Amino acid sequence: MKLQTKFGAERPNATYQQVLEQKKSDKITALYCRLSNEEAQRSESISIENQRRILLKFCEDNGFTNTRVFADDGETGVFFDRPALNEMLAEIRAGNVSTVIIKDQSRIGREVIEIGLLKRTFDEHNVRFMSAEDGLDTAKGFDIMSLLRDVFNEWFVADTSKKIRAVQRRKGLAGEPLSYPPYGYKKAPDNPKHWIIDESASKVVKKIFQWCMEGLGVSHIANRLREEQVEIPTVHAINNGLLNNSSGRVFDPYDWNVNSIAKILGRREYTGCLINFKTFTKSYKNRKKMQSDPADYAVFENAHEAIITVEVFDQVQQIRNSGKRRRNSSGRVSILSGLVHCADCKSKMYLSNGACLKSEQDNYTCSGFRTKKKCCDSAHFIRRVVLEKAVLLRIQQLTAFLSEHEECLVEKLELQDNDKFARNLADDKKTLAKAEKRIKELDSIIQQLYEDKVSGTLNAERFVKLSEGYEQEQNDLQAKVKSLQKKFTEQVQSRMNVDMFLNRVRKYTNITELSTVMLNELVERVEVHARTERYTKGTQQIDIVFNYVGNIDGIQAKSAEIG
Ligand SMILES: [Zn+2]
Question: 377 CA to middle of ligand 1, Å?
């Protein structure tokens, strides 16, 4: 008998009693399927139909007969809402079921009560429980309760983590420091919740802020600290008993790195405040530290003695945030730094303003020329004040033009667009229509070829040759259609860009000086051309490439007089 050999060969652990039960074919093999709402919405491939198919195949392969499917479709997984499960349990209690089979363990919910009830019911009525895909089988010693192990573990960890978080939250909100004191502070010996100044380290912090104010970049600062043989924060902490070097790692004591200096320069704690909740972790499962939104910080002013004044701190932030607009050795800043490029070799132009130069002598030169990296044959020398004046004038012209001839400007920008994108707009549209039509034709030609091949009017060799040719043509056309469509979308995008740009320009009527914010909003780059003649004769063209719309011809003066 097939059933018996199957059992004998593959399930040596099945008890005699269970084999007997199964053999009495008047008992039902219950196949339980479940699909939760969530899963249905995610349209996963575990549809009820799919589960049913897998289970029936499993029964056929393993000799289970008299099957009956119990299916809970779109149930939430909350036990008491599952009619098919209840129906199946009723059959079990009536003594009509020998075996329950599910697709895999995720088909039962993860409710403790539910698993407990299943366990009790199955045991009481001597029901064998199996899963088709993950090989669970009570006849092989599987215990349903073990499904709870994972549930419990997860629950336990989550709960502990939640409690720890709640405690931390409470402490943090009460103004208790949640982190170690930053370099420059240490815990007070009599009260570890209070930070006091670490004399020697705080002097270094002051120096770092001072040097930044003087215009030194972080790498310069790092070099100076190295030269002065100042110990790095980690080594300082170890040598002063603030930190255990449990790893026994050996440090280069003067190896200051730019990141730690940048971090020191950004720590508001030095102004005397305590900031909690600067970082957070998403959950106990993902310990990665994330930066909080500053709006979520808990800030406690005057929590400890300040090392840096608020004024100095704010100034340093301004210097640091302006990033590309950093001051150099003279301490002077050009509002245009980072935006200026050589019109010929496209290299950046840098400001040279040695400390001995007067402010009016500050000038930009092409870095491609200076470094000889690009073969640029002119320094494109321009004085900072001249360039700044020219850029201001250009923006003033633009805003004046906009307020007086708005329509004219819009038209100009749109025309410029048309030039850029669709000089042959009409032709492109025709080409597109033609290509789309031909693609459809080719579809039916290829279809016809298949039919001819099937009917035998076309031999295989000829079919391959012809169809390859047509398919190639079709592919080429499809690529063409795609690129044309892209071009059309770009055109629409560019119309939107014109609007965005004009909205920004409108904010700046009657400006009298350049500002960083305005430049960021309006200007993508400034391109400086070489002088038409050497030395101070001749003129020098300056182009402004605006954000969104690029270069605007016609309204700007073509050149700036050399001052
Ligand atoms: Zn150049």
Answer: 7
